Amino acid sequence: MQCDNIINTLAPCLVQSGWNGDLANFISIFLGVVLVATFPLLVTIGLIWFERKFAARIQDRMGPNRVGPFGLLQPFADVIKLLGKENITPAGADKVIYNIAPPLMVMSVLLIWAVIPLTPIHVGMDLEIGALYFVSVASFGTLAVIFASWSSNNKYALLGAFRVVAQLISYEIPLAFALLVPVLLAGSMSLVDITNAQAGMWFVFMAPLSALLFFVSSQAETGRGPFDLLEAESELVAGFNIEYSGMKFALFFAGEFMHVFTNGVLMAVLFTGGYIGIGGIENSIPLLGLVFLLLKAFVWYLLALLVRNALPRVRIDQLMNFNWKFLVPVSIVNLVMMAFLFKVVQELGLAPAPGLENDFVANIPQTLVLFAGNVVLGLLILSVVRQNFRRERLEESAKSAIVPVGAGD
Fold it and tell me: What was the pLDDT predicted at 285?
């Protein structure tokens, strides 16, 4: 590789200036790791302020408005406050596991960024099993919550662990089924290949149901409202993190904020083209690809904030019924339908011809067939849901119509 510029080709530029080749590669990799690990942490500072202001507007409040202009320095004030708090460890806690849990929560999110393609030439590692990788490392967050609750030696924290096992692990099933659809359409589990496969048409138009299933499942798998039962303060006195204070407590919430935005980034990569912009301009100016990626991720992030602040928290039985009786069956049927229609499209010759995969017009016939299948399946699902609700209302009406006869009548 030749030295074009120090940003895109750092190692060749160092070698050209007289550095040892191995040392130049090490410096390039080390700086890349630092940047990839630091960027989500810095973004989180701004997200904390934005989410508090967004929630305040929905709830007819002002939000942070005292520290700095428009309250922009409020996150820094919170960090200083948390740094000054005493880190208390319960006497009966398993100290090793207790102290591992907070950084493990943050690590589970940072590891996902290692395989996210930021621009056409900037990606930490292009793994052939990138889709499987991020599902695997994201489960470290579940382990972190279990570690924190079990090691705290607190009954409320332990109840939080029970809910983690019931909720987060359960919702990984429809999430994985929804993830298989973009893998199927791209013919690869590499996130780079999935992104490039959307140069002609975003997968959200081919598989809108899969995008919706992935979004809902990721919201629940992260433990955000209306699925935030693992930290229901009205029932569990904050849940799994009740015994944590100071920066240990802050790490849990930093991991949660980062995970929500990371879900938006994954939605952008899997369903809305990732770094792909208008007219392929990201190929000539790679850093514009990062701008496109973050803008798309921010749209999904806004939708997640709206869902969290607009919908009330569900009960634990409603949560599990929604997953096992609705999301899981729908995700399985959706995957089978998409595989069948994709094969039909190929057999009928409606798929883009070789060499035209990135052409928008060539992708229209395939997209119309897949989109029509999603619409039909969506209408069938709504019909079944409507019939179930109608049957339940009739049963409730029949029960209320039965008036017990008094003993003296």
Answer: 83
Q: Is residue 338 one of the residues assigned to a domain?
A: no
- On whether the CB atoms of residues 191 and 293 are closer than 8 A, the answer is no
Q: What would the pLDDT profile of 116-133 be if each residue is shown by its tens digit? A: 898 888 887 888 888 889
What are 239's two structure tokens?
């849940």
- DSSP state letters, 32-57: HHHHHHHHHHHHHHHHHHHHHHHHHH
- Judge whether 75 lies within some domain: no
The one-letter amino acid code at 181 reads V
Place of tokens 């209408």: 379
Residues 14, 21 contacting (CB under 8 angstroms):
no
Closest-CA residue to 291 (of 122, 112, 54, 72): 122
Number of domains in the chain: 1
Between CA 79 and CA 250 the distance in angstroms is: 8
For the question of whether the overall pTM of this predicted structure is more than 0.85, the answer is yes
- CA 12 remoteness from chain centre: 35
Residue 353, in any domain of the structure: no
3-state secondary structure (DSSP) of residue 188: coil
Residues spanned by the domain of 99: 85-316
- The model's pLDDT over 241-287, given as tens digits with 9 standing for 90+, comes to 788 888 888 888 888 888 889 999 999 999 998 898 887 788 888 88
CB 180, CB 194: distance < 8 Å: no
Highest-pLDDT range among 83-87, 139-143, 210-214: 210-214
Angle between helices 328-347 and 155-186 (to 10 degrees): 10
How far is residue 107's CA from residue 354's CA, in Å, rounded to a whole number?
Answer: 41
Across 294-313, b (16+ Cβ under 10 Å) vs e yields bebbbebbeebbebbbeeeb
**Could you tell me how many residues make up the chain?**
409
Could you give the CA distance from residue 93 to residue 241 in angstroms, rounded to a whole number? 13
Give the pair of three-digit tokens for residue 258. Answer: 């980062």
CB 274 within 8 A of CB 296: yes
Q: How far is CA 241 from the centre of its chain?
A: 21
CA gap 153, 366 in Å, rounded: 56
Q: Is residue 340 part of a domain?
A: no
